[in-house]
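#lab-general

N.A. 3:47 PM
ok so I finally got the sequence cleaned up, no stray characters, all 122 residues accounted for. can someone with queue access submit it? mine expired

B.Y. 3:52 PM
send it over

N.A. 3:53 PM
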Amino acid sequence: MSTHSKQRTLFKGGTVVTMDRQTPNLPEGDVLVEGEHIAAVGTNIEADGAAIVDATDCIVMPGLIDAHHHAWLGVMRRLMPDVDDLFAYFDVVAETLGVHYRPVDVAPQAGGRQPSWMLGSI
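B.Y. 4:20 PM
back already:
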């Protein structure tokens, strides 16, 4: 058992997108990470001794690692289903198409428009 305490990091004031029906999205919220685990998601979380990351104007997605790649790659999945060269697929998807993708392209849409609570965070 390690004698070192778990590192605590508090992402404060970001737009929290949980993708969890039991934990609502928060236009302005906090995420506390202890070690490698999400310890809390909410508003105005207090965490003495935690490293604070100002997440203002950022999207925080607890549990989604490498979100900047995974969000848009899911949309493009199976774009070239008959490709026999995986590297050729990545060249087209990442290098040719990926450079044109914007956050709004994968953001939830309401009536064909970006939700107003997300406008300042993307």
